Amino acid sequence: MEKQQPKPLAAVSSAVPEKERGKLAGYAEVIPLPPDPDLPEAVAAHPDMILCEVAGTLFFSRRYAEAYPALIREIAEKSGKPVVLSDAPRSPVYPEDAGCNAFVWEREDGVPLLVGRLDILFPEIPHKAEEEGIRAVHVRQGYAACSCIPLPSMLLTSDWGIMRALRTYSDAVCWVPSDGILLPGYDQGFLGGASGVLRGDKGAEVFFFGDPSSMEYAETLSRMLDAAGADFHLLAEDHPLTDRGGIRFIHPEPERESGTTVR
Questions:
Q1: What is the pTM of this model?
Q2: Is-contact 191 162, C-beta < 8 A?
Q3: If you write DSSP's letter for every residue of 211-244 in order, what string do you get?
Q4: DSSP letter at 262?
């Protein structure tokens, strides 16, 4: 009998309502992240501010890992992935709050791209990308992961600077407005922060915190997702899109090893 693959992990903010976590649990093992004391209070538990994955390696702030050692061990053991802890400066003040706010766009065509403001990232992140042959693309937007929905065949963003930078490498970069996305404590939320992309054998699925149907760009967003062949799921339908720091999906390694490295 073929061994059943474990569910992907879904790192979410601990502030995500139980109802939304419950819907997501049908697709992934949900791991709520407690707040990082070094981040601004309103976004302190946001996954796109707390962790980044590059080429199967997970990156966290060392201070965060020291605050929650059991959580880091749990993620390392369940994912079977090595964890690297960075000693880069960390504080609630930009840009030291955005050290891991980057993402790898794994494209159907072309080499993967690490997208972020390279001069403020944990230095271990672009170094790992270079080791693995992932092309690092510098953008001026420090909150790059918050700003994009990276699909295998298309990338959606509300940031003109990111779109211009990535158009050098691909024509499949599309701009979608983000007006009206809620982010408690701030005037405006981000498109990527209101969603998460789960890649699987049957394509990509996008999960949204909220319902975009009342927004002016809902039809544009739906049309682009359809063109990309991506299914989407609403984790809540009783409020507009809400930036909760996105979802960092982590696919466990097929063969988990005991004593996963944390360094």
A1: 0.95
A2: no
A3: -GGGSTTHHHHHHHHHHTT-EEEES-SSSS-B-S
A4: B
